[in-house]
Amino acid sequence: MQDIIILEEVYKIYTMGEVEVAALNGVSLTIRKGEFVAIMGASGSGKSTLMNILGCLDSPTKGRYCLEGLEVSRFSKNELAEIRNKKLGFVFQSFNLLSRTTVVENIELPLIYSKRISKREVDNIYQIMQTLGLGGFQTHYPNQLSGGQQQRVAIARAIINNPALLLADEPTGNLDSATSADVMNVLCDLNHKIGITIVLVTHETDIARYARRVIVLKDGKVLSDTPSTIPLSQISCETTP
Amino acid sequence: MPALFKIALRAIMRNKLRSSLTILGIVIGVGAVIVMVSIGQGAKFFVEKQLESLGTNVLIIIPISTTHTATRGTTGTITLTVEDAIAIVKECSAVSHVSPGVRTTTQVVYGNMNWTTSVSGAGPDYQIIRNWPLESGRFITQQDVNIMAKVCVLGQTVVTNLFGTLDPVDKWVRVKNVPFKVIGVLITKGESPTGQDQDDVVLMPYTTVQRKIMGVTYIGIVLASSISAEARFEAIDQITSLLRQRHRLRPHEENDFTVISQVEFASTVIETSRTMTILLGSIASVSLFVGGIGIMNIMLVSTTERTREIGIRMAVGAREKDILFQFLTEATVLSSIGGVVGVIFGIAVSKLVSYSGGWPSLLSLPSIVVAFLFSNMVGIFFGYYPARKASRLNPIEALRYE
Ligand SMILES: Nc1ncnc2c1ncn2[C@@H]1O[C@H](COP(=O)(O)OP(=O)(O)O)[C@@H](O)[C@H]1O
Ligand SMILES: [Mg+2]
Predict the structure, then answer these.
(1) What are the pLDDT digits (tens) for B23-63?
(2) What is the CATH number of domain A33-56+77-234?
(3) CA of B24, closest CA in chain A: separation in Å?
(4) Which of A43, A150, B80, B275 is most deeply buried (CB count within 10 A of its CB)?
C-alpha cells in the first residue's frame, strides 16, 4: 500500500515574546493509505498542532510534509485551501456546523468551494445522508439535532468531496459513551467500506481501540507507535447499521 | 457566483433589523443625492429658461453713467437719442438690431375694465431682439413708428385682465383718454429672472409713447442685439466708442451711458445655480458617505460575529478570495438594495417637492444611474476593509473563536 502521509522531522515552534514553545519537536512518521490511526497523549503534548499541520490548516516551522506525494509543506495558502477542499475532511470535537444553515447546505459546503454542485453531487448527498442515518433531516437545522446526529452531519460534510484523508480531533469529546460508540462505528465503517484513511485524536483508551494503530505523543515528540492491542474495529464494524 | 449571492442574501435576512437600518443609511444617502441634484438641476433649467426668454445676445444701453450718477446728479440729463440708436445699428458692425425704448406706468382701459400696467415704446426690431413671437395679429412696423400710429400690442397678463376670454385684436383700448387699436397679442413669456411678470406690458411704437402719452422727446433705453453671442464684447466696444464720439466726450470724461450685456448677467445667474447644484449634491454625498460608514460598521461587527463561520469555511476549502468575495457581495447587496430603494425614494420626494413647491425638479437619468452606481461603489469601498480582514483570518484561530 502506498504512503499517504510522510512527516520528516517536523517542528512547530511558537514564539511568545522571548520564549519559544516547540509544540512539535521533530516528528517523523508515515501513514499508509487505508490506515486507521489514533493519536493519544497528555494535554499540551502537541496532538492538535499535529492535526492542524496534517490538515493543512497550518504549515510546519521546519521539516517536510508530503501528502499523497505532494510536498504540501511548501504550498501557498491558496494551494493549501484547495488541498483541504479536495483531499481532506475534518471532524471536530465541537461539530463546527453552520448554525443557521440546513443540514443539506452544511453537507454541501465543500462542494461550493470546489464548484461541483451538479445533479450527481446532490444525489450523492442524499445517499451519504441515508448511509449515515440522516435521511429525512435535510431541511433541519443543526440545533434541532442531537449531538450524535450533528457529528454525523459533520462526518457527511467531511466525506462529501471523497477525500483521501479524514482527520478527527476528539470527535467524541462532547458525546456520551453510547453516542460515542455510534459515531466511532460510523468512522470505522467508512474506513472499512470506502477505505478512507482516518487519523483520530483522542485521550480515551476506549476510543483509541477502534483504531488499528496508536501513536502516543509527549512534549511534541512521538513517544510510541504501536498496533492497537485489541483492534475493536474488526469486531464492532460487523454490527454497524 | 450565485452561491455567493445566496449566502449574502441569507446573511442579510438573518439580521433583518440590523440590515434594514444599514440599508436605511444608504437609502437616505442615495435619495438625498437624487433629490438635491434634481432640485438643483430644476433650478438651473428654470433660470436658463427665463434667461432665454429675455432674448439672445441682448445688449441694453441706458443713458446713465454707472459710476457718477449720484455725485454729478446727471440722472435727469437725458443724453440718449433716437439718432444714437439709428447710428448704432448703422455703424456698429457687431450689432444686428436696435430698438429705442421709453417706458411709463399708466392705466389702460377697455370698456368698463381697467388695468395699470407698463406701457413701453418699441421699434419694429423689438420682437427679434427679445425673441418674442406673437400669438395673434401683427407687430409694430416702421410705418407705425414713422406716423406715430395709435396702435398697441398686448402682453398676456393685460389681455387676461382687460379682455378675459375675448379676442382683443382690432378692439380699441384707451390710455389717458386716447384710443389705441390693438393690433397683436404676444405669447406668454413668464417671469423674468428677477421675478417680474414680463407679460404685464403694453407695447406701442416708441414715437407714440413719446408724443401721445408722455410728451417727451428723449428715449430711456436702447435694446440692441449683437450678431452672435461671441460678438457681444466687440459690440459693447463699438457702441461705447461710437456713443462717446457722438456725445463728444473727452478722453478723461466718464461715459454718460451704460452698456450691459444680458448674457453676462445670465451667465452669473447660471453659474450661481450650478454652484448651488454642486453644493446641494455634495451635502447629499456626505450622507451617502455616512451610509457607507454604516455599512463598514455593520460588516465589521458581522465578520467578528461570524469568525467561526469563516474558520469552518476555510477548513472545508474556502480560499482567501472566496471569503473576500462573500463579504464584499454581502456589503454590495446591502448597498444595492439601499440604492434601489433610495432611487425610488429620491424620485418620489423630487416629484413631491416639484409638485407642492412649484419648484421644478429635473430627474435626469444619468443622475439616477450615477447615484445607484455610486451606492454600489460605496458598498465595495466600505465593505472591502472588513471583507479583507475576514479573508486574512487564521483558520485555526477562527475555528477556536467563541
Ligand atoms: N497558537 C499558539 N501559540 C502559542 N502556543 C501554542 C499555540 N497553539 C499551541 N500552543 C502550545 O503548543 C503546545 C501543544 O498544544 P496542542 O497541540 O494544542 O496540544 P494538545 O492538543 O495535545 O492538547 C501547548 O504547550 C500549547 O500551549
Ligand atoms: Mg488539543
Answers:
(1) 999 999 889 888 888 877 777 776 666 666 666 688 888 88
(2) 3.40.50.300
(3) 25
(4) B80
- pLDDT at position B332 is 92
Closest approach atom of ligand 1 to CA A52: 17
Cβ distance A113 to B317 less than 8 Å, yes or no, reads yes
CB atoms within 10 A of CB A133: 14
Contacts of A102 (CB under 8 A, 6+ apart): A138, A139, A140, A141
DSSP per position, B87-137: HHHHH-TTEEEEEEE-EEEEEEEETTEEEEEEEEEE-TTHHHHHT--EEEE
pLDDT at res. A94: 92
The cell numbers describing A191, all together, are: 474506513
Cα four-point dihedral sign B377, B381, B383, B387: positive
Q: What is the reported pLDDT for A170?
A: 93
Closest CA to A189 of A130, A125, A133, A233: A233
Chain A nearest-CA residue for B7: A101
Pairing of strands B95-101, B221-226: antiparallel
Model pTM?
A: 0.71
Amino acid at A68: E
Write out the H or E segment, with its range, that includes residue A178. Answer: helix A177-193
Grid coordinates of B56: 439672445
Contact assessment for residue A40 and residue A203, using Cβ atoms and an 8 Å cutoff = yes
Q: Report pLDDT digits (tens) over A183-216.
A: 999 999 999 998 999 999 998 998 999 999 999 9
Environment of ion ligand 2 (residues, CB < 5 A): A 48
Radius of gyration of chain B (CA): 33
Q: Name the grid cell of B350.
A: 423630487
Whole-angstrom CA distances from A55 to A8, A163, B113 are 16, 12, 100
Give average pLDDT by consecutive 10-residue segment, chain B, 402 residues: 79 89 91 84 71 72 62 54 90 92 91 91 92 92 94 94 91 93 92 77 94 87 86 89 89 85 70 79 85 90 93 95 93 92 90 74 77 87 94 93 84
- Measure the CA–CA gap between B387 and B381, rounded to whole angstroms: 10
Q: Is B128 exposed, middle or buried (0-12, 13-18, 19+ CB in 10 A)?
A: middle
For chain A, the structural domain boundaries read 33-56+77-234
Give the whole-angstrom CA distance, residue B85 versus residue A202. 109
Atom of ligand 1 nearest to the CA of A51: 17
Residues whose CB is less than 8 angstroms from the CB of residue B183 and which lie 6 or more positions away in sequence, other chains included? B137, B138, B139, B140, B151, B152, B153, B169, B170
Place of cell 488541498: A83
For A49, which residue in chain B has the nearest alpha carbon? B396
Residues A157, A96 contacting (CB under 8 angstroms): no
